[in-house]
Amino acid sequence: MSNSYRSHRRRKKSKAGRLGLAGALTGAVGIAAVAAGIVLMRPDDRRTGTAIGQAGGGEAATPSATAAPPTGPVLSLTTPEGYGYGLAAVKAGTDEKPLATSEATADGKTFAYADYVLTNTGRRPALLPNVSAADLFVPASQVPDGAKERCMPQAGVPSHMCTLPNHSKVLARLDGSRPPFRDGADTMIPGGASYLVRVATDLPVKDGLEAGDIRLYVWDARYTPERKGIEVAFP
Predict the structure, then answer these.
(1) Which of 4, 64, 163, 185 sits most deeply, having the most CB atoms within 10 A of its CB?
(2) pTM score > 0.85 for this model?
(3) Residue 109 backbone class (left: φ over 0; alpha: ψ -120 to 50; beta: rest)
(4) Under 8 Å CB-to-CB from 16, ≥6 apart: which residues?
(5) Cα 85 to Cα 36: distance, rounded to the nearest angstrom
(6) What's the distance, Cα to Cα, between the start and end of the chain in Å?
(7) Which of 155, 187, 127, 161 is closest to 2 using CA atoms?
């Protein structure tokens, strides 16, 4: 079973999921913000996809195990059901094939990617998000002309940056975390489990894009009522 999921933009409206955004962000959100009112849920018409580990029937695929990497500040997320999540950026870069499912080009074009840690901060199992909780943004100047119309700006994100269609996958279980498991039609994260997730662009970027130019933001209207991007800062 594939444990990957895809982000699409400007398509039909997606159905609301079981995870919903509760409350609103108050005050300034700093680089080490803990977003008390943010809640993880399924995305709107700009982002739809299959949950990690939910691409088919049977048991969820088991990611490999590794030690937790250094991260930036943790962004805390909570659902109405009481599920808690932590989101922390690890690193970013470019690669000709950042994911096993990435389609390498004949001329060796490069794709942008970013890694982050997703944690179930509660003691009980929590639903696994159905798409990438954080979206990858790159400078518009580093997007080839043929892809610029696919690169979307977002309120709260610097105006010179935009987000391309992307694809995400759980790369590893961290610090002995148990793997995701199926509960009927749902895929669940065991209590306290942490996973390393990679989000990578589906379209190439220019060779001049540097790792330091790539950013991660939580932006969906269901995460923040003003639909303004909140940065997940790298270390």
Answers:
(1) 163
(2) no
(3) beta
(4) 41, 42
(5) 11
(6) 33
(7) 187
pLDDT in tens, 149-195: 999 999 999 999 999 999 888 999 999 999 999 999 988 999 999 99
Tell me which residue of 46, 35, 11, 45 sits closest to 135, measured CA to CA: 46
Q: Which two tokens stand for residue 174?
A: 């961290």
Q: Which three-class secondary structure string do you get for the chain?
A: CCCEEECCCCCCCCCCCCCCCCCCCCCCCCCCCCCCCCCCCCCCCCCCCCCCCCCCCCCCCCCEEECCCCCCCCEEEECCCCCEEEEEEEEEEEECCCCCCCCCCCCCCEEEEEEEEEEECCCCCEECCCCCCCEEEEEHHHCCHHHHHHCECCCCCCCCEEECCEEEEEEEEECCCCCCEEECCEEEECCCCEEEEEEEECCCECCCCCHHHCEEEECCCCCCCCCCCEECCCC
The position carrying tokens 């923040």 is 224
Count of alpha carbons within 13 angstroms of residue 49, beta-carbon side: 26
Predicted local distance difference test score (pLDDT) of residue 84: 80
Cβ-based neighbours of 26, under 8 Å, separated by 6 or more? 36, 37
Q: Are the beta carbons of 124 and 106 closer than 8 angstroms?
A: no
Query: Torsion-angle region of residue 181: left (phi > 0), alpha (psi -120 to 50) or beta?
Result: beta
